[in-house]
Amino acid sequence: MKRVTGSLIGVLLLMTGLNAFVLGKYGEFKFEKLHENIYVMHGPVTEPNKENEGFMNNPAVIEGKNGLIIVDPGGNYNIGEKVLSEIENVSKKPILAIFNTHKHGDHWFANKAIAEKYPKAVIYADEHMIAEAKAGEAEKWYNILDRMTGNLKGTKEFAYPTRALKMGDKIEVDSEIFVVRHPKTAHTDTDLLIEHVNSNTLFLGDNVMRGRFGAFDSTSSVFGNRKLLEEIMAEPEMKMYVPGHGQSGRRKETVEPYLAYLKVITEEIAKAYEDEVEPYEVADKVKARLEAYKAWDGIEHTLGRHLDKVYAEIEAMDE
């Protein structure tokens, strides 16, 4: 009897391991409870690669009385299925709505997995995000993520957001109240910051990252991003801040470090521009000021691009 029981336990343990969301050296991923009804799964703070299968963002769950609201479910269909499985470990309630914070596919391609199971779920995003995604941004990001991860094959159909939002919109879903903010241009030109009023939590999207730097594309503004974060730092503090990548926390832990980084690169490049010095010529000096960020993912290959971006913005403002 003991032998049978031991075998059964072994089988159960094996089944548990098979169902767990595990990504190689990055370990196991589950939703962490940040508030009585707020849960966040903090993804790896690395760029998309084969081992993380393209999972790198912070999917979030807000549990209402009758259903769930999701923020940024993840970067592809296959990851979406795993995230969905972990969501069901939090609650078996149906998913009523999804918020997408911006157009980059590593945050919203997993919409498809959720929409297949919950076709009535409303998917919210900035009005410009929906237009840009359909005009080619989704296709571009699919090709980027598939090349880097090899995990998107066969999942090229996109579940686009279905409800457009704009600055100041207030949405109520299952008695959970959300207010959205749309900066004209920050991390992209399609960003939404989502305030969950009930818990006093702010979902920042990629306007804040912690532990990694990410990228600024042609629609981004480093100066706009800095201005946005300065405004957030000047406001009454909220209880919790959830960045697009990296650990959630209080404002000093999340917003302040990324803002400090943006201040360093904008100040140094503004001075370089004034002195008629190229960005690469001050890169070592800038890096010396960023000693506290040396462990952040991507600093070696990202810093130079960020400096060039800042320089280009200053040139454009000076025209």
TrEMBL record:
InterPro entries: Metallo-B-lactamas, RibonucZ/Hydroxyglut_hydro, Sec-metab_biosynth-thioest. SMART domains: Lactamase_B. Gene3D superfamilies: Ribonuclease Z/Hydroxyacylglutathione hydrolase-like (3.60.15.10). GO terms for molecular function: hydrolase activity. Keywords: Hydrolase. CDD domains: metallo-hydrolase-like_MBL-fold. Pfam families: Lactamase_B. It comes from the Bacteria. Residues 56-245 form the Metallo-beta-lactamase domain. This is MBL fold metallo-hydrolase.
